[in-house]
Specification:
Oligomer: heterodimer
Helix content of chain A: 10-25%
CATH class of chain A: Alpha Beta
Protein name (chain A): NADH:ubiquinone oxidoreductase 30kDa subunit domain-containing protein
CATH class of chain B: Mainly Alpha
Largest sheet of chain A: 5 strands, mixed
Distance between the termini of chain B: 34 Å
Largest interface: A-B, 40 and 48 residues
Order of helices and strands of chain B: HEEEHHHHHEEHHHHHHHHEEEHHHH
Keywords (chain A): Transport
Radius of gyration of chain A: 17 Å
Structural class of chain A: alpha/beta
Mean pLDDT of chain A: 84
CATH topology of chain A: Beta Polymerase, domain 2
CATH architecture of chain A: 2-Layer Sandwich
Family (chain A): Belongs to the complex I 30 kDa subunit family.
Low-confidence stretches of chain B: none
Helix content of chain B: 40-55%
Number of domains of chain B: 1
Keywords (chain B): Cell membrane, Membrane, NAD, Quinone, Translocase, Transport, Ubiquinone
Number of helices of chain B: 18
Enzyme class (chain B): translocase
Order of helices and strands of chain A: HEEHEEEEHE
Chain lengths: 154, 403
Amino acid sequence: MIHDDIKSDLLGLYERAWESFGMLVLELPADRLLALVRRLKDDFGFDLLLDVTAVDFPERRPRFEVVYHLYSSGNNLRVRLKTRVEEASPRVPTLSHWYGAARFLEREAHEMYGIRFAGNDDLRPILLYEGFEGHPLRKDYPIDREQPLVPYRK
Amino acid sequence: MEIKSPVRSPLEQTADPNSVVVNLGPSHPATHGTIQVIAELDGETVKKADVHCGYLHRGFEKEAEHHHYHKIIPYTDRLNYCSALNNNFAYAEAVETLLGLELTPRCLWLRTLLSEYNRLVDHITCVAATVMELGAMTAFLYLMTVRDYIFEHLNHLTGARLTYSYVRIGGLARDLPEGWLERLEEILQLYERYIERIHGLLDRNRIFIDRTRGVGAMTPEHALNWGYTGPILRSTGLPVDLRKDSPYLAYGELDFEVPVGIQGDNYDRYYVRMREMDESVSMIRQCVKRLPGGPVSVADPRVSFPEKAHVYTRTQAVINHFKLVIDGIQVPAGEVYRAHEAPNGELGFYLVSDGGGRPHRLHVRSPSFAHMGGMHTLLEGYQLADIIATFGSMNMIGGECDR
């Protein structure tokens, strides 16, 4: 199966691999993300970046999990990549050099969780507005918190 | 006083002094949904464009973390509000996968039938709105007539015009009312008569062709690079469709084709949707023919209420009822990504459960949001008026895009 080919061929780039309801999941450190994605794209035809998001586990260290879903249209395959980043420096490299879709998707994860995508020079607010304080999808952001009025809304 | 634009557009800082920077939206009459396009113009040619969304952001994912699983269903209606049933079913399947639930045959076929029925409505709405913006008012009125009949029909089934909340974890809210399938066939025949008129009005209309052919074109590689899925990706010629590639519900047993376009332009997207509507009607008829009997929901105490009479007379039934109401469905710890072919493309739900009654994390992979990321590449180099045609064929739905 191609899952086994991916696992054996990319050995050394990821730390753990398992199946999640038919999808291959790879867990890896952030500094190997670019190398792994390049191999997935060039060697296994993962041509569509479906999703970039994050999950917050306040009681764990490292706290944040950055999650990518990639799809290969030629092989009809999906893969999930997971990398953990610390709260003090939640930093991963951008994938926007290889996937145009990353530009937009990373903006959302950036504003909702505070993940910084190094190399993405356009991390303006996308769903929120300028002047919004905090990262609302973090677990420690209260759901009933109010935001200050920004100057042009007064 | 001067009110500075809240969107720090990179265009404002880099614009050629001989160019004009104009603002389309966020409340523009042609952008059905609230979105802002900032365009740098040279005459009427768009040199650069910047797309800004988020005006309809309501905190779906934050709210999901504070609600029981069944109480999230009404929120999914407000994603793509033109095809709420497709949102319902994709979300429910993610939860059911973690629970290991197997749906009843009737539920599988009904969900498939209703998915196609809502896809039909969504494509009708998209084509109607797009062609109206190009001046085809008569075609718009024909399509709205069919849409209203379908809304009334779905109202009989769900009690709502747009916000159905018809799904339940493990099944559906209720079975079909008497006479619903007969009315369905009447509406499909009405659709066929009206859609024939749309083809006659538009397919070889010189004005329509001039406005759409070659406008907003892209290659398959371009579409994949920018994250396009659904009819937009298929308009480039790539037959990527979740219903065929990873069949869910009852799609594996249906006989249907995946329509594709030629050069990925606005005309191709119009035609792919028109062809997909015909395929949807064919699939609906197959579902009606093969619809099995039996219950629409699983009788699993983890997700279904016990019989009301038992709640009043049996201890374990009243406890079951109480726990489902107060604590909600307890979903085993784990994570899953489930995606359906929504009318706009791949609608995915990434669910992380910690074993409780509320999701630890529920992320929506929104096709509209991904599509807006690459839309500037389809606007640059074309005319100002082409923004309307291209935006219409992208079928951006604010509720789905901004979540």
